[in-house]
Amino acid sequence: PLLRHGLAVTAVDRAPAMLERLRERLRDEGSEVASRCRIVAQDVRALDVGGGYRLAIAPFNTLLHVGDHDD
């Protein structure tokens, strides 16, 4: 929905399968919508996407999955 409303989105995940699912969904949206999405393959614990953002959204219990027992 954010992309469809003209907003730019940076999507971050370390799992190649999840990023591929995103790419598939973006292909279904068309090039105009997909062009507003920047995909970053990275672990959020060491996140470096360059620059700053006015808003960060971490949906669906994201922070509960960030650490492990060794963290």
Task: Tell me what the structure shows.
The chain has a two-stranded parallel sheet with strand order 1-2. With 71 residues, it is an alpha+beta fold. Helix content is 25%, strand content 14%. The protein is globular.
What's the layout of helices and strands?
Layout: E1 9-13, H1 16-29, H2 31-34, E2 37-41
Parallel strand pairs: 1-2
List keywords for this structure.
71 residues, two-stranded parallel sheet, globular, alpha+beta, 14% strand, single chain, 2 strands, 2 helices, 25% helix
Low-confidence stretches: none
Radius of gyration: 13 Å
How much of the residues is beta strand, in percent? Answer: 5-15%
Kindly report the spatial arrangement of strands forming the biggest sheet.
Answer: 1-2
What gap, in angstroms, lies between the N and C termini? 34 Å
Q: How does the helix and strand content classify structurally?
A: alpha+beta
How many helical elements?
2
* Residues in helices, as a percent range: 25-40%
Q: What is the average of the pLDDT values?
A: 89
General form = globular
Largest sheet: 2 strands, parallel
| H/E series | EHHE
- How many strands? 2
